[in-house]
Amino acid sequence: MTLPAPPTPSRPATRGERVAAWGLADASRARTLGWLAPLLVTLLAAVLRLTNLGHPHEIMFDETYYVKDAWSLWNLGYEGKWGDGADAGLPKGDDSAMQTAGSYVVHPPLGKWIIAIGMALLGPGSSVGWRLTTALLGSLTVLVLYLVALHLTRSRVFATIASGLLAVDGLGIVLSRIALLDGALTFFILLGFLFVLLDRDRSLPLLDARIVAQRRADADDAPVRLIGPVVWSRPWLIAAGVALGAASAVKWSGLYALAVFGLYAVVTDALARRRANVPLWPSDAVLRQGPASFVLMVGPAMLTYLISWTGWLVTSGGYDRGADANPLVALWKYHASMYGFHIGLATPHAYASPAWQWPLLLRPTAIWVGSDPAGCGTDHCIAVISSVPNPLIWYGGVIAAVYLLYRFVRGLVEHEPVGPLHTAALVGLLATYVPWLLVPNRTIFQFYTVVMLPFVVLALTVALRDLAGRRTDPLHRRKAGQRTVAVYLVVVVLVSAFFYPVWTGMSVPYPFWLIHNWLPGWI
Q: Between 340 and 396, whose confidence is greater?
């Protein structure tokens, strides 16, 4: 009988193996901790947006349009008309004023479908239900900004600063706590911008590799190719088209972002071909890669937009649905009517604010005003929801945008290239602000700037990064810059705490409310 061999003693791990194991553990721990900051900031944003979300339990401001449109969309597939008393009855759960006749609406349906999801979950009488999905998208916008800032700065610290500033800003908080379309519009535009940045990082190395392979394949005596390859494998550009198509399906102003970000993709393609020494790089990018990029981006955007109208297309009761036997032709005629409405909108309004006023913050929008004397223990109380942002964030961001514009112009004059870190925010502001300057007579409002806000915050973050100093700067310079940034951020948080009551409709003493009105137009 053969006895079993004695067990072989295990070999002790070598020092190299132990170091490798520690390195893997450290990498895993770093990845885990890397997600901790964005998750905590997103959680903070959610708490600020979801706490007491149902207050006030009444339809406020333009919720009178979108809440009713959302509920009729959910039930009918299209926006229906509502009879008298709908605003008073709906908070009680009474939707008997809803009619089956189609209502003339001037915004695409996707944003209202998003609002309808919360109403379907919690019922038409729940003010939390009206605002739930908007608040969730507002919180996710903070996370998307973190990813954008991390992509550009390559710094988790400054990505956290960017998302934290957006999390505590009043404009973002207010527009996340009301059933309007602008919060969803902001989310999809910022998401599309993130995808465009990801496409840039993926497609440019692919282009370089294709050019190198192309040149290696040429014979030594072959003539130099004047053009580069056309790159079709760009999934992030397709994703950007879907996101920006969804933005356009919330509000037509999403089309501005689609156009600007599409042009940005063409410009980055052209510069990549220039760096790769393609002789005819401008025409190569515009005439050859440009059409391919157009198909990849605009095609999915158009399809996404059209899908958002499915309810109107497959039913017969929507407004002007019978304008033509062909539903697509009828939809085109409806869009022509909507376009006429938008270009002719010039109705006076007490809180109207032309776009030139927005950087100066001259006329924020009063979303809701109420009173509750018992709520603060005195006879002179007021409850207000105002779209005024945190002044330190807003004005600081505007100054930072001017600083980035100066750097860009100086780089053009001195022929020094300015990278995406210092231009990305300007591209976003070009898409979300400049178009409104072209319609000076149209009735528009300061709360539209919520779509600009992530790019204002991004500009501010880049400026703070420059202020904090680089590793190559002297130690005393970096310490001074970092202390300045830290003090600024602490004061920003304190100012947000000070303004939070007037962003959420808390009942406060009248004198306390007055000291929040720093400019005459804020009342």
A: 396
Torsion angle defined by CA atoms of residues 56, 59, 60 and 63, in that order, rounded to the nearest 10 degrees = 130
Rounded to two decimals, the pTM is 0.92
Is 76 in contact with 315 (CB distance < 8 Å)? yes
Percent of the chain exceeding pLDDT 70 equals 89
Angle between helices 453-468 and 475-504 (to 10 degrees): 150
The dihedrals phi and psi of 169, each to the nearest 5 degrees, come to -80, 140
Separation between Cα atoms, residue 252 and residue 185, nearest integer Å: 9
Phi and psi (nearest 5°) for 181?
A: -90, -20
**Per-residue buried b or exposed e for 136-153, using 16+ beta carbons within 10 Å of the residue's own CB:** bbbbbbbbbbbbbbbbbb
User: What's the rounded mean pLDDT across residues 414-442?
Assistant: 92
- What is the pLDDT, as a whole number, of residue 19? 45
Q: Counting runs of H as helices and runs of E as strands, what totals does the chain give?
A: 20, 5
SS (HEC) of 391-442: HHHHHHHHHHHHHHHHHHHHHHHCCCCCCHHHCHHHHHHHHHCHHHHCCCCC
Greatest pairwise CA separation for the chain in angstroms = 105
**Residue 297 above 60 pLDDT?**
yes
Cβ atoms 500, 389 nearer than 8 A = no
Asked whether the beta carbons of 455 and 172 are under 8 A apart, the reply is no
Say if residue 202 is exposed, middle or buried (CB neighbours under 10 Å; 0-12, 13-18, 19+). middle
To which residue do tokens 């502001």 refer? 429
CA–CA dist 400, 290 (Å, integer): 32
- What distance, in Å, lies between the first and last C-alpha atoms of the chain? 100
CB atoms within 10 A of CB 190: 28
- 180: left (phi > 0), else alpha (psi -120 to 50), else beta? beta
DSSP type of residue 103: -
Tens-digit pLDDT profile for residues 178-229: 999 999 999 999 999 999 999 988 877 777 666 666 666 655 555 556 677 8
The token pair at 116 is 């309808």
> Which residue in 57, 82, 85 sits closest to 177, CA to CA?
57
